[in-house]
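Milestone 3.1: sequence recovery, worked example.
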């Protein structure tokens, strides 16, 4: 058993008490013996006890005091022990508390300290620790976010510089983007898939750049639109993050090992909801949220740059085509007689047509017609494109209808066989399909009919997907017409690499006075004067080595007649890249040479007219700004007059109600509220029929024409009518209608006077 007091202290106190009590007893006996004249011996003390028996009790005094001293010393020792234990406990607590505070001072916010229930200071310091810990975590989070923001900002600036400096070469641009992006986010592999939508009927993705393990890779890969992860990402137009990728998915590995990254992110490059490509990046480490956000922001800039580059390329191509057409038109005699004003109008129209063509191409790229049929050919679903293309306004007009409703009768013979095969689960159909619109027009499409099966493998429905190609069909005919027009307006010959004429069109035969057989018997060098032979041979050598020639050359029609021709010599390569033939397209510019001086004078005159036009345009802008200010001031004045008139009419004692051409109340004064018992908030914007019951209007032609917007109102005549107000009280009213028209819109104002008041 553990004692909570000092035995040595108790024993010492008992001994001291016993000694003092014994000495006191000895002193008492000595004094008493002196008083009674007894000897201070054992015999004398015995006599004293006999004479005074109370001394027997005094003999017990040391023992009693020792017992009292025992319990007193024991209690004192216990108190001292408790005080010492309490002091030690407090000292230990203070040391622990000091150590805890010292750790907090050193920045260790994870230090542990469990205060007692009554330890207010300890609890306060623990609360302080928790506050510091929270603040530290928030500070670390803020620093991490700042570091991520700075990282993203530096990355955006870096890629903005790359996009700004390398816009000429698409392949180098894509490699620079993907290599720097892989390194910047500490990934392992990356691929840049660029959408090739040159042929709107066959869109696919090209792997234009591939980077893996600090090396440039040359992986030739093509992915069709909608296929695989890349195609799905493009269709969904959303970022895709995949974890735990199978080893067989990635085909590019490091020379140091065969381990493949397990995390992949695919980000679409889109601008205005239009996808231009997909970036695919693989990494061993999972992609953080800030990295995904950074890649998406970079993808927006890349998409915008790719879109601009594509538009620039297409615009350049269209401008070149327009320039070639302009040169062909200039060669024609009829067009040369046109004045410069007509030429300028033609160029402006060509520019507008180019813009329309670009807009149309972008629209066609996103056109997709979709419908679903059951196996019996009954339409169960049609999207908006289907309705719009076939000139319907709602699904109720086509759902439940048979597919024969959209197929021309002439096409039913071959289409019924295809449908019968599809209904039985046969091979899907893909090809040109002509549909019939609601108005009977032909709608050409590139269509696909595909069987959709249920879990049992039975055909559940037939899916129809198509792209409208009606415009392309018309354009194809137009291009064929343009080629035919080119053959009629320009001379064309085909020449072998050795210079022998292979073919010549009718224009060439007519100008040179040669038949097809006679033309084939000559060489290209026979068409030029001997003095020009060396120059022609040099040009021919360049053309046969892939350097096209475009310019003006003098040819011999016969031995005496010379004419000038403007044209191009272009080499046509075979499948092996070797020159198979040279095509020359040209036109006679002899008259153009003679008119060159006149053209220069007209050009100077055009410049003067353009300067005058610019000055007139500046003056016109000034007048337009002044006119806008005048109209704005007039509008403000009209608003003031309108407000003033409404306030004036509001104070009239007669009821005044104004309705528009559809019978909707536009103005309702206070007198009308008092007359009909309906407030302005209840009637404004509502039909005027609320004030006049149907039975009243049916019996009164005047009211019927006023309340029916389809009938002309009787204006300018004051009529007496009888109606009931909101409380059912019958009112005799005098009513006058006036009409005001502004363009095609008009309003009717009713002036109503209550004449049901008793005068006598």
């Amino acid at each position: 058993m553990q004692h909570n007091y000092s035995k040595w202290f108790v024993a010492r106190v008992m001994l001291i008490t016993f000694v003092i009590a014994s000495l006191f007893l000895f002193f008492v006996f000595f004094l008493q013996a002196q008083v009674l004249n007894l000897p201070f011996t054992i015999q004398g003390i015995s006599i004293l006890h006999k004479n005074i028996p109370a001394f027997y009790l005094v003999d017990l005094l040391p023992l009693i005091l020792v017992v009292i001293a025992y319990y007193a010393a024991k209690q004192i020792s216990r108190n001292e022990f408790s005080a010492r234990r309490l002091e030690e406990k407090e000292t230990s607590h203070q040391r622990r508390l000091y150590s805890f505070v010292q750790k907090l001072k050193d920045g260790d916010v994870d230090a542990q300290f469990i205060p007692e229930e009554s330890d207010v200071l300890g609890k306060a310091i623990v609360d302080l620790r928790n506050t510091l810990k929270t603040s530290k975590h928030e500070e670390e989070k803020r620093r991490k976010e700042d570091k991520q923001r700075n990282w993203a900002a530096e990355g955006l600036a870096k890629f903005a510089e790359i996009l700004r400096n390398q816009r000429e070469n698409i392949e180098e641009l894509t490699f620079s983007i993907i290599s720097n992006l892989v390194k910047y986010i500490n990934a392992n592999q990356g691929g840049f898939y660029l959408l090739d939508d040159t042929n709107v009927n066959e869109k696919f993705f090209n792997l234009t750049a591939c980077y893996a393990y600090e090396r440039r890779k040359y992986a030739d890969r093509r992915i069709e639109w909608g296929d695989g992860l890349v195609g799905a990402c493009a269709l969904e137009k959303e970022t895709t993050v995949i974890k735990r990728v199978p080893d067989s998915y990635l085909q590019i590995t490091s020379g140091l090992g065969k381990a493949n990254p397990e995390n992949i992110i695919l980000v679409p490059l889109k601008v205005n909801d239009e996808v231009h490509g997909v970036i695919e990046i693989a990494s061993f480490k999972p992609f953080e949220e800030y990295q995904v956000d950074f890649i998406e922001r970079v993808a927006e800039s890349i998409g915008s740059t790719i879109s601009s580059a594509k538009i620039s390329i297409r615009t350049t191509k269209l401008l070149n085509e327009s320039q070639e057409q302009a040169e062909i038109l200039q060669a024609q005699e009829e067009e040369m007689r046109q004045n410069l004003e007509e030429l300028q109008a033609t160029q402006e129209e060509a520019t507008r047509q180019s813009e329309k063509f670009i807009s149309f191409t972008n629209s066609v790229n996103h056109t997709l017609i979709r419908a679903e049929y059951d196996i019996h050919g009954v339409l169960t679903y049609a999207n908006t494109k289907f309705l719009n293309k076939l000139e319907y306004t709602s699904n109720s007009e086509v759902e439940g209808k048979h597919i024969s409703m959209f197929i021309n009768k002439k096409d039913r013979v071959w289409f019924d066989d295809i449908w019968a095969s599809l209904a039985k689960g046969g091979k899907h159909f893909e090809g040109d399909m002509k549909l019939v619109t609601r108005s009977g027009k032909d709608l050409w499409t590139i269509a696909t009919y595909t069987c959709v099966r249920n879990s049992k493998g039975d055909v559940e429905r037939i899916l129809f997907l198509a792209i409208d190609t009606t415009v392309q069909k018309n354009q194809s005919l137009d291009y064929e017409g343009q080629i035919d027009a080119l053959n009629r307006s320009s001379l064309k010959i085909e020449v072998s690499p050795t210079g022998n004429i292979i073919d010549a069109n009718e224009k060439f035969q007519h100008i040179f006075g040669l038949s097809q057989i006679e033309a084939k018997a000559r060489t290209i060098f026979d068409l030029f004067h001997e003095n020009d032979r060396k120059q022609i041979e040099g040009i021919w050598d360049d053309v046969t080595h892939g350097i096209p020639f475009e310019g003006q050359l003098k040819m011999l029609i016969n031995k005496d007649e010379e004419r000038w021709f403007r044209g191009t010599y272009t080499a046509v390569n075979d499948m092996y890249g070797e020159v198979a033939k040279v095509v020359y397209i040209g036109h006679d510019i002899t008259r153009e040479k003679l008119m060159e001086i006149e053209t220069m004078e007209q050009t100077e005159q055009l410049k003067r007219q353009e300067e005058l036009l610019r000055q007139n345009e500046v003056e016109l802008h000034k007048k337009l700004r002044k006119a806008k200010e005048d109209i704005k001031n007039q509008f403000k004045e009209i608003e003031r007059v309108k407000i003033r008139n409404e306030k004036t009419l509001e104070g009239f004692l007669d009821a005044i109600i104004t309705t528009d051409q559809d019978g909707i109340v536009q103005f309702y004064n206070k007198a009308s509220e008092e007359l009909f018992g309906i407030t302005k908030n209840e009637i404004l914007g509502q039909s005027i029929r609320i004030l006049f019951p149907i039975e009243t209007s049916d019996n009164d032609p005047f009211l019927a024409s006023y309340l029916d917007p389809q009938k002309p109102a009787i204006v300018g005549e004051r009529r007496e009518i009888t109606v009931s107000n909101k409380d059912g009280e019958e009112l005799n009213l005098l009513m006058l209608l006036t009409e005001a028209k502004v363009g095609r819109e008009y309003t009717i104002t009713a002036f109503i006077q209550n004449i049901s008041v008793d005068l006598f």
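The first strand starts at residue 189 and ends at 196. Residues 597 and 603 are 10 Å apart (CA to CA).
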